[in-house]
Amino acid sequence: MDFKPFIRDIQDFPEVGIVFKDITPLLKDAQALNNASNSLYDLINSKKIDKVVGVDSRGFIFAPMLASKLNAGFVPIRKVGKLPYDTISESYDLEYGSDTLEMHNDSILKGEKVLVHDDVLATGGTAKAVCKLVENLGGEVVQCNFLIQLTFLHGASKLKGYDVKALLNY
User: Fold this and answer.
1) Could you tell me which residues come within 8 angstroms of residue 24 by beta carbon, excluding any fewer than 6 positions away?
2) Which residues are listed as membrane-spanning (predicted)?
3) What is the pTM of this model?
4) C-alpha distances in Å from residue 135, one per residue of 30, 42, 65, 132, 138
């Protein structure tokens, strides 16, 4: 299925000069949503996965679906102050500022195989921070999965050494 007709560009969001890739048209179409979920699953190629990490907030959409299909646990990565238990954190830069992510300090066990999922790979800062969080707890990042990769921002270059897959490339 061609998913590009279900992705719309929003000019100057969240800041002037940014073209935001809006996935909500894909999400509201039942067939596109189901096909995208299945296609993201197919990118994994039968790898053993113990946990699927989903990144706040749009990574929360497909990550639990993938976890269910993989018979794996789901781990939310949130912005600072959103998780109720003891956390570890990692700060990073993005194309229009900087931010910090957190995860519970007991969410990944040493040696667990982890799939990192987010909706968009842009500059790679978010995904790199998530990989560091997983590895700080002793997990092994098996793959970084994205619905969309903005190749012109060269985010995959920050993820050297990781298996990076995306359904759509712009």
Assistant:
1) 8
2) none
3) 0.95
4) 35, 24, 23, 5, 5
pLDDT class of 51 with cuts at 50, 70, 90: very high
User: Alpha-carbon distance 147 to 20, whole Å?
Assistant: 14
- Report the C-alpha dihedral over residues 91, 92, 94, 96, rounded to 10 degrees: 50
CB of 116 closer than 8 Å to CB of 142: no
In the predicted model, is pLDDT for residue 96 greater than 80? no
**Domain annotation for the chain: domains and CATH numbers:** 46-169 (3.40.50.2020)
Any idea which residues carry the catalytic annotation? 58, 95
Q: How many CB atoms lie within 10 A of CB 133?
A: 26
CA of 10: how far to CAs of 2, 93, 99, 116, in Å?
Answer: 20, 22, 22, 26
Cβ neighbours around 138 below 10 Å, total:
11
